[in-house]
Design brief:
Layout: E1 38-43, E2 50-55, E3 62-65, E4 89-90, E5 95-96, E6 102-106, E7 109-115, E8 118-125, E9 136-143, E10 146-155, E11 165-171, E12 176-186, H1 197-201, E13 203-208
Antiparallel strand pairs: 1-2, 3-5, 3-13, 4-7, 6-7, 7-12, 8-11, 8-13, 9-10, 9-12
Length: about 210
């Protein structure tokens, strides 16, 4: 009777029938071990394709605008807050983790973002200011000039900031540019008196899904 004729990765079983193998016993893995922060990934660019050990790199698929800085809105390129106006977001170091996306910015104020092919969830929050407690503004995300998604609103006091506009956007080909525009507004402060709340409370977030 013969025993232990089965091999895996060139390794024979022990007397208990157990087979122990390491990475370098596998014919299509070009490594002996992995260290902390590494993993085995498939390299289909190799000839022939093979498994290799490489660092695990986190990749971001989002854009975020909104540093929370105290910056007066009248330093932006935006016009007085009124229906149809594009509202800008302040960030001296906007984060762009979507390959192929571009941010339209001037003097650290962002007016729009151009997105490549993909699917996205977009969230926008405004912090414009008003002359009295009855003041309110509604706004929506726009793609190529057309309103998409839900309506956000912002009121007189800070507790009334935080009802964002949210939308799903599909870009099947080419690119699409998104921005955020006021739908309706009442009792709004002039551009000179807008203060810093849009910079401290406003943000624009885009996630690729």
């Amino acid at each position: 009777m013969s025993h232990n004729k089965i091999k895996v990765g060139g390794q024979s079983p022990n007397s208990a029938g157990e087979i122990s193998i390491s990475l370098d016993n596998l014919s299509n893995v070009t490594a002996t071990s992995a260290s902390d922060g590494q993993g085995i990934i498939y390299d289909d660019t190799a000839s022939p394709p093979k498994w290799i050990v490489n660092d695990l790199v986190a990749t971001s698929t989002m854009v975020f605008i909104g540093s929370g800085s105290s910056q007066a809105y009248n330093t932006s390129g935006g016009g007085a807050i009124s229906a149809g106006v594009v509202v800008e977001f302040y960030d001296s170091s906007p984060f762009n983790g979507i390959s192929g996306a571009s941010i339209s910015t001037a003097s650290n104020w962002v007016s729009g973002i151009t997105l490549p092919v993909g699917n996205y969830i977009i969230t926008a929050n405004l912090g414009v200011t008003f002359t009295g407690s009855s003041g309110v503004a509604t706004y929506r995300i726009h793609s190529a000039g057309g309103a998409i998604g839900t309506t956000g609103n912002v009121g007189y006091d800070d507790e009334s900031v935080g009802s964002p506009a949210v939308s799903y956007l599909n870009v099947p080909s080419g690119t699409k540019t998104i921005d955020v525009r006021v739908i309706a507004v009442s009792s709004v402060n002039s551009l000179a008196n807008q203060g810093t709340r849009q910079a401290t409370h406003g943000f624009l977030e885009i996630r690729a899904v």
